[in-house]
Specification:
By secondary structure, the protein is of the alpha/beta class. Helices cover about 40% and strands about 15% of the residues. It folds into two domains: about 130 residues, Aspartate Aminotransferase, domain 1; about 250 residues, Aspartate Aminotransferase, domain 2. It has 15 helices and 15 strands. Helix 2 crosses helix 3 and helix 4 crosses helix 11.
Length: about 400
């Protein structure tokens, strides 16, 4: 199974869920392939037999290999990777490394993830910082020239951008933004929660200081596991989370601690090691399939869905931007989101709904208060997409 020619039969044989339903909710949680679920179950069984601490010691080398696999997926090194519970925790750990003061500026976009937007607003309320959102370009997505001017004029303490928003198929131009940040020596934080596992990620090309991600979505790993990339430059500056614990630092004198030398200063002591091993297995699986092949097929299936759905009366495709991902969002007239998702699920088709409170700025601009989010992945077939489209055609009618 190498890109660009994917062996769909083998991929689907590795994915038991394919036999039970049409899974088009990979932006929520992808179906785990057999090697991932096997890695998790084997470690849980080992913990049951010999104890949690002892099992972690027994699998020490395999745990280290999980860092190496995730690093390879992002173009990083193992010492740049910290395992955490999820992407939001990773993002918050990175934010907490900055000593914000009244008047500081966080520069972001109108399409950033809802939890990130709420964190920015919380920092504004608590510390008196300013949240600046760069405007969108006419074709959709952030206006890079406007962001360049804001970086020059406002000198933000941090630029933070969500690569692929949860509520849209948009792909933000993070490489362009990274170049602007580096030219002005502005720290850059990227949320790659929805892009890891479906798009190529190269932290050197992005030139970011931090990158947060989860395992459960397009990476097809377990829920409850995520990771944070921390650049060598950020480590050299001594950046560390606000609430650092005994995993991330050594207490060496009564009033002195020493942070870990690598990204693990952003970790906490307690781990679900079964999920860490599952995340490592998911990264190796994606690397084995080939991320370029994954990306080409996933985005191709999504593009086909947009074209087909746009031709159905009562269905409005909401995605727009210079570059689009494997997430498709549509509004279907005459339906409420919960009822539509439930009816599709009754037909054994998995999708999800996105609501206005998840994307206030984007949905208000589009004039909708909800969207059906459809997210195919490389293991989906053309026949599955046809079945979904026919279901929507019937329900819209």
């Amino acid at each position: 199974m190498t890109s660009p020619h994917l062996d769909l039969d083998a991929l689907r044989a590795d994915t038991p869920g394919c036999a039970e339903r049409i899974h088009l909710n990979n932006a929520g949680a992808g179906l785990m392939p057999a090697p991932v679920s096997r890695a998790i179950h084997e470690h849980l069984e080992l913990e049951a037999r010999m104890g949690g601490y002892e099992a972690a010691d027994e699998r020490h080398d395999a745990i280290l290999a999980a860092y190496t696999a995730v690093a390879a997926l992002t173009g990083a090194h193992a010492h740049n990777i910290a395992f955490v519970e999820n992407a939001t925790v990773a993002f918050a750990q990175a934010l907490s490394a900055f000593q914000f003061e009244r008047g500081d500026v966080i520069l972001t976009t109108r399409a950033d993830y809802v939890s990130n937007q709420i964190m920015y607003l919380s920092l504004a309320e608590r510390f008196g910082i300013h949240v600046e959102r760069a405007p969108d370009a006419a074709e959709g997505g952030v206006d890079v020239q406007a962001m360049r001017e804001l970086i020059h004029r406002r000198r933000p303490k941090l630029v933070a951008v969500t690569h692929v928003p949860t509520n849209s198929g948009l792909v933000q131009p993070i490489e362009d933004i990274g170049r602007e940040c580096r030219a002005r020596e502005i720290p850059f934080l990227v949320d790659a929660c929805q892009s890891i596992g479906q798009l190529p990620i190269d932290v050197a090309a992005i030139d970011c200081d931090f990158l947060s991600a989860t395992a459960r979505k397009f990476l097809r790993g377990p829920r409850g596991s995520g990771f944070l990339y921390v650049s060598d430059a950020a480590l050299a500056r001594g950046m560390q989370p606000l609430f650092i614990d005994m995993r991330g630092a050594d207490w060496i004198e009564a009033d002195l601690y020493q942070p870990a030398p690598d990204a693990r200063r952003f970790e906490n002591w307690e781990f679900a090691y079964a999920l860490v091993l599952g995340t490592g297995a998911a990264a190796r699986y994606a690397l084995g399939v080939g991320i370029d092949g994954i990306s080409g097929r996933t985005c191709g299936l999504a593009a086909r869905l947009r074209d087909t759905l746009a031709a159905i009366d009562g269905v409005r495709v909401l995605d727009h931007g210079r570059r689009l991902s494997g997430i498709v969002t549509v509004h279907v007239a005459g339906w409420e989101p919960g009822g539509l998702v439930a009816e599709l699920r009754r037909r054994r088709i998995n999708t999800n709904a996105s609501y206005r409170q998840y994307a206030v700025l984007d949905f208000d601009a589009k004039g909708v208060d909800w969207a059906l989010r459809v997210s195919p992945h490389y293991y989906n077939t053309d026949a599955e997409l046809d079945a979904f489209v026919e279901a929507i055609r019937e329900l819209a009618g």
